[in-house]
Write a structure and sequence with these properties.
By secondary structure, the protein is an alpha/beta fold. It is built from 8 helices and 8 strands, in the order βαβαβαβαβαββααβα. Strands 3-2-1-4-5-6-7-8 form an 8-stranded mixed β-sheet. The structure holds 5-O-phosphono-beta-D-ribofuranosylamine (GRF).
Amino acid sequence: MPSFKKVFSFAVLISGSGSNLQAVLDAIENGIIPGARIELVISDREDAYGLERAENKDITNLVIDKNDTSGLLKLLNPKSIDGIILAGYLSILPPEVIEKYSGKIINIHPALLPMFGGRGFYGIRVHQAVLASGAPYSGATAHIVDCGIDTGPAIVRGVVPVLTGDTAEDLQKRVLEVEHIILVIAVKAMVEDRIKEMIEKPAVYMDTKEKNGVLEFARGLAELGDSLKGEL
Ligand code: GRF
């Protein structure tokens, strides 16, 4: 009897353009994450362009009332959904969903957690705070969701140098590109049941295509390394 590898089905929760959703869709289509499928896309905003991205791939997609996410639990059935990806999702998950999918919910955050995370740190505000702090680098973190806000264990980080003259929008754009890459790395790790080992030694993705700023980037990484050691 041939052994059929079980497909790992995800629900993806969005609130906006869905570029992170698209990155996962493309990775699945390109065979980068064999064994993964997106079963359902749920948005807490009816104008989220990510819904159209789901529609284009014939993926069931629907909108929930962001003020009443209790309906979310009913939509997320472990018989058909193995894991959840928060891809730019802005509402707070009901605790019963976090409990039901404990260890199986990935969030992508546009900063190097634990820095610049937590209540109020979302969207452009994150990058404004990074620039205001004078930090020589920023980046993104894919992490497992726990009952806190942006407090779950990191799976993989991507570091992005802050360049002289960067506006918050410039930084957001470069960080978003790295989000797409590290989210795929984290999703693939979950499908391949490697999350535990990655949490024990969170990888740091290094995008050296930026010619200028590499020195600051390397220095930043070294500093980050120290703070990371503190976490391990
Ligand atoms: C982006 O700002 C990203 O940093 C954060 O959510 C926002 C929307 O991302 N994770 P997306 O294009 O909807 O995936």
